[in-house]
Design a protein that fits this description.
alpha/beta, single chain, binds beta-D-fucopyranose, 3-stranded mixed β-sheet
Length: 469
């Protein structure tokens, strides 16, 4: 037996490790195996339309708020998502790669303005065709598609009418959801209504850091209420139109820790917790907005219409929990929550986003969510950006592998203690456009050379390939 026959006989994974000492090191943990999570656990990769597709103005696509915002020069590195990681043209080979990495679930989002260029009304058949091709290719490869209806890219024409601050969005969003479920619901069972409503309402309508760049308390509050209504209404439409649907919504969550064990720190932590973790889930569960613990939210009453309490409710099949970091807090000046984040200490490990690596925060937030009567929790995003370097066609991203293993270990701990966690989606597949930050932060398990759109599977991708085998 020669060397290559020998390597083949012991399996390609080991062969990869053999050629790659960095990866061999990462794989050294035979105790830590996929099997521990059970056979029915969903393993997937999460992406979104604006961050990956590109093709921003072709085949009939209308303008979205992110097209406008980035082309106005609002991104840190002056980039745009006009090409992004070119998924629109490369979905075929990209999905094959996803399969090669042994993932069975692919989360993506529909671009509203690709399907309905004017926000409502005329349907862009080329947009429908594109998603049909993506979905069909997934199914041919044995990959389950998971669709997010709204991952932040509102059609600009609707923003011109007030966007999320206009209650009419309930009608616009319903029309869009009707379209998506009717066109794709025969093949898609897993649906997520919104992606991180807290992020897009606060960054987009309160502090103006993200598209559409609006600043103001009233626009923020209006957007919160209308997003919460759409969250539930979207769920109802999916349940009505899709047989055997599995319906969730994705919430950004971070465990909030008081800097000191003193009452005023604890009160600050509680206020921040309402804003970051409780605001969008409690009304869906029929608990109403958590106004008692954050009196500022009483201002939402201004936007409530008779019957809204009922309309905010929806019994989701799962809650998508997205966690990257924890927040340590102290009393402070951030309006309405009157709490500030305490900068991570000198010894804290930070990602390229400046986010503190805090795997135990994942465990704690899962335990916190376990107190709600939820049917299932799925981690619909988790991952990290680190400054990746290509050496001889390899990216030895050992920091990302450690990050993922540590977070997974904490998920497993919570799962073993009875938290109903049914799946994990890593953020993300191929390096893409990271919103306000542009192309600098790399979150992918596959490296993208943005000049050539060449892909290199990072060690973290190879690690997953082995882990999921
Ligand atoms: C989440 C977003 C996702 C991505 C990651 C890093 O908040 O949902 O699109 O930007 O952060």
């Amino acid at each position: 037996m020669n060397r290559s026959e020998f390597l083949k006989s012991i399996g390609i994974g080991v062969a990869l490790c053999y050629a790659n000492p960095w990866l061999a090191e990462a794989m050294k943990d035979p105790e830590f195996s996929r099997v521990l999570f059970g056979d029915s656990f969903f393993w997937g990769i999460a992406t979104s339309a604006y961050q990956t597709e590109g093709a921003w103005n072709i085949d009939g696509k209308g303008e979205s708020i992110w097209d406008k915002f980035s082309n106005k020069g609002k991104i840190k590195d002056n980039s745009t998502g006009n090409v992004a990681s070119d998924f629109y043209h490369r979905y075929g080979s990209d999905l094959k790669l996803l399969k090669e990495l042994n993932f069975k679930n692919f989360r993506f989002s529909f671009s509203w303005s690709r399907l309905l260029p004017e926000g409502t009304g005329n349907v862009n058949t080329k947009g429908v065709d594109f998603y049909n091709r993506v979905i069909d290719q997934c199914l041919e490869l044995g990959i389950e598609p998971w669709a997010t209806l709204y991952h932040w890219d509102l059609p600009q024409v609707l923003e011109d009418k007030g966007g999320w601050t206009n209650r009419d969005i309930l009608g616009w969003f319903s029309e869009y959801t009707q379209l998506c479920t009717k066109k794709f619901g025969d093949r898609i069972h897993h649906w997520l209504v919104l992606n991180e409503p807290m992020a897009f309402t606060s960054l987009g309508y309160f502090i103006g850091m993200h598209a559409p760049g609006r600043i103001g308390i009233n626009s923020f509050l209006a957007a919160i209420h209308h997003a919460t209504l759409c969250q539930a209404e979207g769920g109802r439409i999916i349940r009505n139109n899709v047989a055997n649907s599995h319906i969730g919504t994705a919430l950004s969550c971070a465990f909030i820790e008081p800097y000191k064990a003193k009452p005023k720190f604890q009160r600050a932590a509680k206020r921040l917790d309402v804003m970051i973790n409780r605001l969008f889930i409690e009304p869906a569960l029929g608990m109403g907005y958590p106004m008692n613990d954050l009196p500022f939210l009483k201002k939402l009453d201004k936007f409530m219409k008779p019957g809204d309490e009922e309309k905010l409710k929806f019994d989701f099949d799962f809650i998508g929990l997205q966690n990257y970091y924890k927040i340590v807090t102290k009393p402070g000046i951030v309006p309405f929550v009157w709490a500030n984040q305490v900068k991570p200490g000198e010894n804290a490990k930070l990602t390229d986003m400046g986010w503190e690596v805090a795997p135990e925060g994942m465990y704690k937030i899962l335990k916190q969510f376990d107190k709600y009567p939820l049917k299932e929790i799925i981690i619909t995003e988790n991952g990290a950006s680190f400054p990746d370097i290509v050496i001889d066609e390899h990216v030895h991203d050992s920091q990302r592998i450690s990050f993922i293993k540590d977070y997974l270990a904490n998920i497993l701990k919570a799962k073993n203690e009875g938290v109903k966690i049914m799946g994990y989606f890593v953020w993300t597949f191929i390096d893409n456009f990271e919103w306000k930050e542009g192309f600098r932060p790399r979150f992918g398990i596959v490296f993208n050379d943005f000049k050539t759109q060449g892909r290199i599977v990072k060690d973290s991708g190879l690690w997953f390939k082995e882990f999921l085998k």
